[in-house]
Amino acid sequence: MDFAIQVEDLTKVYRENSTEVVAVNGVSLSIQRGEVVGIMGPSGSGKTTLLSMFGCILKPTAGSIKIYGEEVTNLSDKELPFVRRKYFGFIFQGFNLFQPLSALENVRLPLEIKGMSKKEAGALSINLLEKVNLKERAYFLPRNLSGGEKQRVAIARALAGNPLIILADEPTGNLDHKSGELVVKTLRELVMINNASAVIVTHDSRIFHSLDRVFYMEDGKIRA
Amino acid sequence: MFSVALKIIFYDKVRSLITLAGVVFAVALIFAQIGIYLGLMETSSTIIDHTNGDIWITSRNSKNFDFSQPFPERKINQVLAAEGVKDAEKLIVTWGVIKQKQGGTEQVEIIGYNPDTGIGGPWKMKTGHFRDVKNGNYAIVDESSMRRLGRFEIGDYREILNRRLRVVGISEEVKSFTTAPIIFTSYKIAQNLGGYVGPDNTVFIIASVEDGYSDKEVINTLRRSLSNVDVYTKDEFSRKTRLYWTIETGVGLSFLITILISFLIGMLIVGQTIYNSTIEYLKEFGTLKAIGATNLNIYQIIFSEALINASIGYVIGLIFTLLSIKIYDAIEMVFTIKLWVALLVFFLSLIMCLSAAFFSVRKVRKIDPALLFRG
Ligand SMILES: Nc1ncnc2c1ncn2[C@@H]1O[C@H](COP(=O)(O)OP(=O)(O)O)[C@@H](O)[C@H]1O
Ligand SMILES: [Mg+2]
A3-223 architecture in CATH? Predict the structure, then answer.
């Protein structure tokens, strides 16, 4: 069995002044290749913290993380960017698109950072925008796109490097129901085509039917 | 990354204009300071630089062209007799008071030269000839002194130190660092004006070196044979005069301080705006990092912003500077801008903007991942 993510006893403790917050408390789980899983739970239950550790942008206090069998828990700050580059695409509730850059340029930028030529990256980006049905909006600035369109640009950007794992934090949080549904549907299709995996944090119960499996979080723990 | 920086700059127009204004301000001010400073340097030694002759002999410990003590003129015989000296000439530089037509007085710098050779005399005449001061109470006045002395024409009389001199020529380009008007007259008249120099004294002897001898050899010979004088090459004395006026007087330091302040103000403005811009795009930069961009990738964007601001700001600052040269001309100030100055200022503006960008580096390095997920 091909595991995309395996975590064991994953714990994150935030220390602020003298108070400690145990945001994630001994979580163990595995996510298979090709799976689209959801993480649900009340606000403050540790979903975002867990997702950040999956994506190697936050270091755990304890426990271990394996990505496709590769132990990444103790990698240095120098090595981590390359792990992220290799495996992950991210989607955020706030889209996080560069306002001065067109949809196309936003999708193209990570490809260029990965060393692709402008031309090659441009062609690929148009292709990706076509997949999220935004080819006609390629040259629009984010401020001229609707929320759902922005999130689909973000999906195209997240998919740009053919990541094996997509991590999405409340991707529909800022969207109305219809665009939210389209966003998740698009995401799901593209993940399937690439035989990738996705972890979607959400408390939008309406996207339930698009998920293969759902984890419930409460007080930093996965509820059985 | 460069094109991303360019897009950011064009997108945030107001911020970019403020940044540019900061760079332009600093660049133009630095240009002005250096230009005026170099102009002053040039002005302070302009007569030495325009005088034919290889070696300058001054009284001992003279510091500059404008204020040197007299010494016995008969030393010129020893100079002429020295091996390797082709020719030698005397030159007087002294000070006097001129009576203004409309009342009041002005201090003037008086140059007395030999009208037969013209050595030390005016090099560019508007009207008349340097020979015209020969055999009489005659003077050549520089055009630039009209601001101080009022209009004058050929044939006018002016009273300097109780002697009436007739204006026989008008020279051009002769300015003094001291800003006092410069009056040329014959060596003999200058020697006897007011009695400061004294009837048997000169202020400088200027020698030329015979072919086949080096300046250095001849200077050594002269140093051995002459007492109580200093002997310099033309370049040395020119430099000594420049350094006196620009460094020993402290003038240079005040220019340097102004340059430094302009640099710092420019750096603060640019640093501030680039920092704000970095903060504004922190989430997006963080997103790039999440996707696998290294800090270096992000720095490239920020430093490109700095580079673009520096280059555009520099070009505008340079254009302002070139336009302002006409204004300096109009107020009779020498403003010098040379290629190396332009390159130096470009280099300074690069350093200014790039070091300003460093304020933002820490922010990027420490991006909090939690920030990315905030809606
Ligand atoms: N950077 C941080 N510093 C300190 N405490 C944090 C930080 N991020 C999150 N927390 C705390 O950790 C807990 C879990 O937060 P989070 O993972 O954001 O939950 P969720 O995404 O489920 O709302 C909360 O109590 C929150 O206040
Ligand atoms: Mg959250």
Answer: 3-Layer(aba) Sandwich (3.40)
